[in-house]
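Below is a complete specimen:
___
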Amino acid sequence: MTTTTIATGIIVVDPIRPDDASMRAAAAVVAAGGLVAFPTESFYGLGADALDPAAIARVFDVKGRPSGKPLLVLVDSVDMVTTLAARVSDGTRALMTRHWPGSLTLVLEASSRVPPALTGGTGTIGVRMPGHAVPRALVRAAARPVTAPSANPSTAPPPLTADAVRRYFDGRVELILDGGPTAGGVGSTVADCTVWPPRILRQGLVVVEVACA
């Protein structure tokens, strides 16, 4: 396991209207292969360039995450999803229109450009457009999909504050975006859209209803 200590910076951001300068600074960290922690609707997440195998490896390393467990990816548009998924059905697009931005993760067949490590060897990818303004602005500023597992070691509770992230990962991540305390509770609903109707893998706040097969 990597033991190199790095300087961990903290930037305080408005959780409703994050400023452009802070988002550009965070995006530069992501573009350079670094790790950025940020608030989401439930817990703080751990962001890295979702298409950079070395950055993905760092996420697994820092979290002590099993290699067979895929990483959730945040996007800022349906167009970005189409670069990650082998196919996006009309029914899946309808779910995006109805529930995004929000707490719904859709599992799709991964395209060939997605690093296998990101999928945990499953060949599928979970994508979500976040309802929280900070990660959405980060993805937009980075102009690339960003990973978003919770910012904690795999054996520890997910963090609700930037201070909790720092206790976990000080010296292990480049930047923490402090957007204040998060709400906690359940994570996003996860719907497997590789089958239809979608199969619910985890029930969260969003209730998925489809009208047709």
Observations:
- The radius of gyration is 16 Å.
- The mean pLDDT is 95.
- Residues 20-31 form the longest helix (12 residues).
